[in-house]
UniProtKB/TrEMBL annotation:
This is Solute carrier family 12 member 7-like. Keywords: Cell membrane, Chloride, Glycoprotein, Ion transport, Membrane, Phosphoprotein, Potassium, Potassium transport, Signal, Symport, Transmembrane, Transmembrane helix, Transport. The chain crosses the membrane at residues 74-99, 105-131, 152-184, 228-247, 368-388, 408-434, 508-526, 532-554, 566-590. One of its GO terms (molecular function) is potassium:chloride symporter activity. It is found in: Cell membrane. It is a multi-pass membrane protein. Belongs to the SLC12A transporter family. K/Cl co-transporter subfamily.
């Protein structure tokens, strides 16, 4: 037994060593990437909460972690029932019968069908987004913001919040309408039948109801409000079942509700019982209560209203029944202007000239103008609420499965209910009763109530509690949505609403919600609030469809929804339908909603927090950029479209900060945000050793660009030497058709220092490479004295010295600068040089005509430069230049020899050590002598030669070609300084470097002589192509 135990222990130990050795193979990767086991452990402990949200109490230090309970809600309880409750509501009970009577069965069917298809297509898109990964608590806002980016997410999230808030106003107004018209009609504060009495009562009671809801919300935990939702939903379901039961009952026995008509006009029957002018009681004819409304006394010989006298009173059934054939009369709509009496079609009537507006206490009138698009706006809120399931995604057991199934089933169920109600209402109820919005013609009962069985009170009580509960839930959900947006940090001015009480209740968000909800209540009209609500929800649904369409078309690798029954055409159709419905409902409300969303979008874009959520808009931008880049390469750029696409060569100091930030300021002034700008720098070394410094340098470049308002890209390159780094940037910066065509750099002011001879070589090689690459070159001297973006030059001139024509860039640059506010007040002057054989007068005329055709506003001047004798100053300056060049060459050769000798000694010693190490039992190391007799003689001869060369240096004569070049530079400089000493900026043609590299140092001296005595100078070397044209 002991032997077996020992073997088992050894076996386990061997397995551990084996696993450990396997893991050791990935030891370096484990430092930066997690093991699969730890990754799975993190995923299993994932909770569906917003980052930073404290669901429970907070301690003084922040969020206190609590044990998260596992969500247990399934599809039916978690998605289907909440969607059902939010979709079915106030419009169904208070306005659907009126919509059917006004638009007719066919028109109402079209309205319901359009709205239901819109929400169904939106639900399909939402299901695809919701099943594409884990959806934390937050629902629609989370899905849109993570799919379309923070700008769209913030804009649509706030629209969704406003829609939810106005939904609270709608439900409260519906509650008060039911209360004051059907339950306690005597409780009105303002009496009378004038048009302002009822709205004022709605405002007072609506405000009180809002206060009660707010008080209930603040003193009742959210979980209790959610539990009451089942009670409110039960009321809705019972009311709908009562309605269907009433429809079935009409087949057997129609309800005993009658409508009184005078001629073809419908009358309010709340103040009379008998629909007759006279009645016989005990063989005595007496007048009825209705007589008193139209006649000046109760007597039979009283003077009565002409229409009352000429027309007879008839009483018809309000609900003829399902088999009565009334469906034929209700197929088509009856739209009418406000103030027109409600009349029965095909009913005989004798018209009169007497106005009927003074009989508003007995006749039924249309309270608003009715037309198809208005009814669409009023009806659409009845199909909203499809987001209820996605809003509870954090409480679902399997959100990816429950959200699509529950939401689509809820929409199909409610669509069936609405469409069946449209048909059944039109088939059972008389047309004049359907058009009676408040049921005044049926004893002040809701029209759907007289159809319900067993009593209208089932509908009254059920709709009252349904509307009240829906309003309370809106006031519960809207503040939390606003709090989620505020805590996401994308809208700076909303951050205060992210705070709340210790238990997480959004106190500040609730106050704002109550304020906005009060605005809706003060409107005091359910018909006026409904289109506002429709706009915000339609905006939200539009962007849900847009998000799904973009993700599908882009085919991003991360787009892998588990819900398969979607297509980009369905999303596009849903988006188009939402946009169409917005303008169908109300074109001015639609424009206001779009402007609000646009303003929020731009605010977040400029002032909001930078968030990278892998959104579809970024992917769309990448696709659009790729398409544009490919198109740009298909054909060469025309001269009319040419603009400087600038590669800025920046130099960094020892702290990796930009040494000349005014170079970026000048770029901003030259570009004004248009075209391509690449700000670059080069670090010496290898990328492996200077990776962190390269990242720091790039961040510093970006910070400097932000400070100087330069729009473009930054790029830091690590190269073995600066020369190769500059060459890499000139050759490879940019992409496709968006490559730079101009290089901007500062003049190397320290080029004369002996230790900075590489600066001279780098500069001249850069000039040569830009010329070879057909790129323009701009070199700014005294760049630190150039004006900043905050400065304003009050006058002065920009002087262009046009010596040779190399594409017209010299003419274009002053025009571009003058577009910026820094240089706007500067005038442009163009100077050109005439030689002895030139006609200066004709040159000036031609130049003026050329400037005119170029559409430039510039003063032209021709400067004559005649051949003159070379001055002693020029001769001496050239001699000093050549002596300095020769001296630097000798110093460079001497240093090179010493470095070569040191390298040779190092190589020999290294070889000696390597050989001795390889030989086993080798003898002690033998020292190799470096200096031999021959080498000593060679070194002495070389030193004698160098001394002789130094003596010859002081006896040398300058090269005549260099003398002539220096003479040209000095004479041109004299003319430029004379004319342009006080100008704000001087632009000069930059001569090319010599083909022979031996003259590089002389070239720098020539440029120094050319720019001597000038403050701000910009040397310009064209790229070899025309950049400006006289043609349109």
């Amino acid at each position: 037994y002991h032997h077996k135990s020992t073997n088992s222990i050894m076996l386990i130990h061997s397995m551990i060593l084996f696993l450990d050795s396997c893991i050791c193979f990935f030891k370096e990767e484990m430092d930066s990437t997690p093991m699969v086991s730890s990754l799975l452990n993190k995923l299993s402990n994932y909770t569906n909460l917003f980052p930073g949200v404290c669901e429970h109490e907070e301690t003084e230090d922040g969020c206190r972690r609590v044990t998260a309970t596992v969500p247990q809600m399934g599809t039916f309880i978690g998605v289907f029932l909440p969607c059902l409750q939010n979709i079915l509501g106030v419009i169904l009970f208070l306005r659907l019968t009126w919509i059917v009577g006004t638009a007719g069965i066919l028109g109402s069917f079209a309205i319901v069908f359009m709205c239901c298809v819109c929400t169904l297509l939106t639900a399909i898109s939402m299901s695809a987004i919701a099943t594409n990964g884990v959806v934390p608590a937050g629902g629609a806002y989370y899905m849109i913001s993570r799919s379309l980016g923070p700008e769209f997410g913030g804009a649509v999230g706030l629209c969704f919040y406003l829609g939810t808030t106005f939904a609270g106003s709608l439900y409260i107004l519906g509650t008060i309408e039911i209360l004051l018209i059907y339950i306690v009609p005597t409780a009105t504060v303002f009496k009378g039948h004038d048009g302002d009495a009822m709205p004022n009562n709605m405002r007072i009671y609506g405000t009180c109801c809002l206060y009660v809801h707010t008080h209930t919300h603040t003193h009742t935990h959210t979980q209790y409000v959610n539990k009451l939702a089942l009670v409110f939903l039960s009321c809705v379901i019972l009311s709908i079942m009562a309605t269907y039961a009433g429809v079935i009952r009409t087949i057997i026995e129609p309800p005993e509700f009658n409508v009184c008509l005078l001629g073809n006009r419908s009358l309010k029957n709340e103040n009379f019982e008998v629909c007759a002018k006279k009645e016989v009681i005990k063989n005595t004819t007496i007048t009825t209560e209705l007589w008193n409304h139209f006649c000046n006394s109760k007597h039979l010989n009283a003077t009565c209203d002409d229409y009352f006298t000429l027309n007879e009173l008839t009483e018809i059934q309000a609900i003829p029944g399902l088999l009565s054939g009334v469906i034929k009369d209700n197929l088509w709509g009856e739209y009418a202007p406000a103030g027109m009496t409600i009349e029965k079609k095909n009913q005989s009537s004798v018209p009169t000239q007497e106005p009927t507006t003074d009989r508003d206490d007995i006749y039924l009138f249309n309270d608003i103008n009715t037309y198809f698009t208005l009814l669409v706006g009023i009806y659409f809120p009845s199909v909203t609420g499809i987001m209820a399931g996605s809003n509870r995604s954090g409480d679902l057991r399997d959100a990816k499965r429950s959200i699509p199934i529950g939401t689509i089933l809820a929409i199909l169920t409610t669509s069936f209910i609405y469409i069946s109600c449209v048909v059944l209402f039109g088939a059972c109820i008389e047309g004049v009763v359907l058009r009676d919005k408040f049921g005044y013609s049926v004893k002040k009962n809701p029209v759907i109530g007289i159809l319900a069985w067993p009593s209208p009170w089932v509908i009254v009580i059920g709709s009252f509690f349904s509307c009240s509960g829906a309003g309370l839930q809106s006031l519960t959900g809207a503040p939390r949505l606003l709090q989620a947006i505020a805590r996401d940090g994308i809208v700076p001015f909303l951050r205060v609403f992210g705070h709340g009480k210790a238990n997480g209740e959004p106190t500040w968000a609730l106050l704002l919600t109550v304020g906005i909800c009060e605005i809706g209540i003060l409107i005091a009209s359910l018909d006026a609030v409904a289109p506002i609500l429709s706009m915000f929800f339609l905006m939200c649904y539009l962007f849900v469809n847009l998000a799904c369409a973009i993700q599908t078309l882009l085919r991003t690798p991360n787009w892998r929804p588990r819900f398969r029954f979607y297509h980009w055409t369905l999303s596009f159709l849903g988006m188009s339908l939402c946009l169409s419905l917005m303008f169908i409902c109300s074109w001015y409300y639609a424009l206001v909603a779009i402007v609000i969303a646009g303003c929020i979008y731009k605010y977040i874009e400029y002032r909001g927090a930078v968030k990278e959520w892998g959104d579809g808009i970024r992917g769309l931008s990448l696709n659009a950029a790729r398409y544009a880049l490919i198109r740009l390469e298909e054909s060469p750029l025309h001269t009319k479209n040419w603009r400087p696409q600038i590669l800025v060569m920046c130099k960094l100091d020892s702290d990796l900060a930009v040494k000349h930030p005014r170079l970026l300021s000048f770029t901003t002034q030259l570009k004004a945000g248009k075209g391509l700008t690449i700000v670059s720098t080069v670090l010496e070394g290898t990328f492996m050793t200077r990776e962190d410094e390269a990242k720091t340098a790039e961040q510093n470049l970006k910070a400097a660009m932000v400070a100087e308002r330069t729009k473009g890209f930054s790029h830091a390159v690590v190269s073995s030497n600066l020369r190769d780094g500059f060459s890499i940037l000139i050759q490879s910066a940019g992409l496709g058709g968006m490559k730079h065509n101009t290089v901007l750099m500062a003049w190397p002011v320290t080029w004369r220092q002996a230790q900075n001879s590489t600066a001279t070589r780098n500069f001249i090689e850069t000039v040569r490479e830009t010329t070879a690459a057909n790129q323009a070159l701009l070199v700014a001297k005294n760049i630190d004295s150039f004006p900043g973006n905050q400065q304003r030059l009050e006058g002065g001139t920009i002087d262009v010295w046009w010596i040779v024509h190399d594409g017209g860039l010299l003419m274009l640059l002053p025009f571009l600068l003058s577009q910026h506010k820094v240089w706007r007040k500067c005038k442009m002057r163009v100077f050109t040089v005439a030689q002895l054989n030139d006609n200066s007068i004709q040159m000036k005329k031609d130049l003026q005509m050329f400037i005119y055709h170029l559409r430039l506003d510039a003063k032209v001047e021709v400067v004559e430069m005649h051949d003159s004798d070379i001055s002693a100053f020029t001769y001496e300056k050239t001699l000093r230049m050549e002596q300095r060049t020769e001296m630097l060459k000798q110093m460079q050769l001497s240093r090179t020899e010493r470095e070569r000798e040191a390298q040779l000694i190092h190589d020999r010693n290294t070889a000696s050590h390597s050989t001795s190490d390889r030989e086993a039992g080798a003898s002690p190391e033998r020292v190799h002598m470096t200096w031999t007799k021959e080498k000593l003689l060679n070194e002495k001869n070389r030193q004698r030669e160098s001394i002789g060369q130094v003596k010859d240096m002081f006896n040398m004569k300058p090269n005549q070609s260099n003398v002539r070049r220096m003479h040209t530079a000095v004479k041109l400089n004299e003319v430029v300084v004379k004319k342009s000493r006080d100008s704000q900026l001087v632009l000069l043609n930059m001569p090319g470097p010599p083909k022979n590299m031996k003259g590089d140092a002389n070239y720098m001296e020539f440029l120094e002589a050319l720019m001597e005595g000038l403050d701000r100078v910009l040397l310009v070397r064209g790229g070899g192509r025309e950049v400006i044209t006289i043609y349109s």
